[in-house]
């Protein structure tokens, strides 16, 4: 028999969460996972590209948890330098450093009995990762410049747009901290993987910005919606929100049409970069396609293979140059292991040369 405890709430619902738009299968999985983990006290790691709504899910975890009456504190770890971030997270005492003219309470203390959301956790330094690990394990820390230990009861929800396992392999993230943060991981799908939600998102944002600008409610014609549905959305929901607001402001009628959409959505300018596996990979341009066809003499049967090979070669060359020829770093940035990189260099006939870190 199991020991008695509090009743486990129903966590199987896949209905949309408050403030989150979309009913696609991918989002239904997110909703179920969010409700399930919210009922626990476990740390949560939210993984997804920029603009996929990680903060919305973090807020939902908090509001559905037993800590809902406590504070929800958000910290963007990528927005501050190491010294400022340490003070922001843990506080400081007067005189701890130049400019510390008074004691300051940190965000962990402010989040006591509630939830702290650490966005862009991958941006933290080794020194801060050690302090974060201690907070997660011991629930205690010292303010900057102080020896007094502060104890807190704070749940941690962290978020990243990078693959932390690859960051660990590259030596940029502590493995022990990763396992403390990643008790439960929720993967947020990019908008291009939940295209069936685009219409509902457009309708929602159009209504919001029409009201904000004191305009009549706008609709969108079929041709414009088709363009939005086909676009790759490198900036995800945040990019869609921006474009809908733009269309609402510029629209000269009650219907959003193709002309009200930005050039990149209409295919009039090169597509923007999509961040994939930690590397910025430009979407293939028509000029590159033409070059690959003319250079390789590609037929209809092998055109795709020739184009992909050329893009892959140019990407490897670019990343190697950015990493000053250090193959270990280049492999980590590309999201492949070093042996695979060696095979690719040989396959493409690229001069390997000595690896500076070999």
Features of the shown structure:
Arc Repressor Mutant, subunit A, 14 helices, disordered N terminus, Helicase, Ruva Protein, domain 3, five-stranded parallel sheet, 11% strand
Q: How would you portray this structure in words?
A:
By secondary structure, this protein is α/β, with parallel strands linked by helices. It has 3 domains: 25-189, P-loop containing nucleotide triphosphate hydrolases (Rossmann fold), CATH 3.40.50; 195-260, Orthogonal Bundle (Helicase, Ruva Protein, domain 3); 284-347, Arc Repressor Mutant, subunit A. Helices cover 42% and strands 11% of the residues. The protein is built from 14 helices and 11 strands. It has helices at 25-38, 54-63, 82-90, 107-110, 126-138, 164-169, 175-181, 198-212, 222-230, 236-250, 286-296, 303-322, 327-334, 338-347; strands spanning 44-47, 72-76, 115-119, 140-142, 149-151, 155-160, 184-187, 219-220, 255-256, 274-276, 279-281. The strands form 4 sheets. It has a 5-stranded parallel beta sheet. Strand 10 and strand 11 form a beta hairpin. The N and C termini lie far apart (57 Å). Mean pLDDT is 84; it is low at 1-8 and 276-293.
